[in-house]
Amino acid sequence: MLGCKYPLVLPGMSWISTPELVAAVSNAGGVGILATGPLNPDQTRDAIREVRRLAPNKPFGIGATLLMPGAEENARVALDEQVGLINVSLGKPDWIADAAHDYGGKVLCTVVNAKHASSAVESGADALMLTGHEAAAHGGDVTSLVLIPSIASRFPEVPIVAAGGFADGRGMSAALCLGADAIAMGSRFATTVESPLALATKQAIANPHLDGGSTESDTIYGKNFDGIHARVYKSPAAIKANEKPASFPLVLYRAFMAARKMNIPLWKVIPGVITQWDKMYPVAQLGSATEAIQAATVHGDLNEHGVQFVGQCQGMIHDIPTVDNLVQRVVHEASFVMQENAAKFHVDYDYEYRHRNLDATASSSDELYGN
Hints:
The protein is an alpha/beta fold. The protein contains 16 helices and ten strands. Strands 1-2-3-4-5-6-7-8 form an eight-stranded parallel β-barrel, surrounded by seven helices. The protein has a two-stranded antiparallel ribbon with strand order 9-10. Helix 7 packs across helix 15. The radius of gyration is 21 Å and the shape is globular.
């Protein structure tokens, strides 16, 4: 469906998934997704065209976090540019799916549980990106080990991109065995040569030492930082930011300042704050966190002000390779691991279990409980 050589996806990460990194991943055989959160419509159009210049005739997509100010306008630009893949999160994709399908485009919806997945499919999603608990930023409360096979069983015809905990070929082979069709690697692609992530932050994440380095345990998961449960790099600034929620006036002030920096008119922000306070307050908190995110992502400040989104897979990140080198390493390791593990089994592949699906399981359950 994605039209790529390898089942690898770069998710859209603000200030990281730029045209240069997106193109590098697509040129290496994967699919890069452009982050549009920090962009206005004109910048989004320019970025799309830059990806096409750097990676001609290669598949790529754009991200649209619909609850955020400016996201709808950026999505309309992507539709006007006929981008092949639109990755929708925090919102229903129906109008995007209708428009994308008119020109042969596809919609990939990011979800964290079965209810979200069902709603996305009903609204026209062509594929699902499942974000497990291990993921950087806003993963759900279910780990990839359970989330992938659960959703794959419920929606066997829907392609799945697994996100959360994946950084090497072993993870890719595991995800494919669990029922995924591809994996997304955010933290791993963020720590490559072509990534614009600040070098100091890359080096901190890729530090392999147990004493003072970054292991799988050196992250913080909580909602005090930006109002939505998120996983971040465990740094002095992140520890402080997660101690308690920011005060209400401070959240609004920072959110408005963030909107101004991203050239989002306040008249687009204020109505939502007034009429949808229950939904917009977390968004305002997220907006108020942009300064801290930029401090870590752009400037490499992890001690005083910066907070960096990162997944638990940082415990498997020990170097800063080029994108192409990383992609080749991952796919070759995945191929080797799958062949090695297949050799451990001597089974009859016509075994009935191989053909069972969710409907059969549901029928058995109905009979068991007399429904």
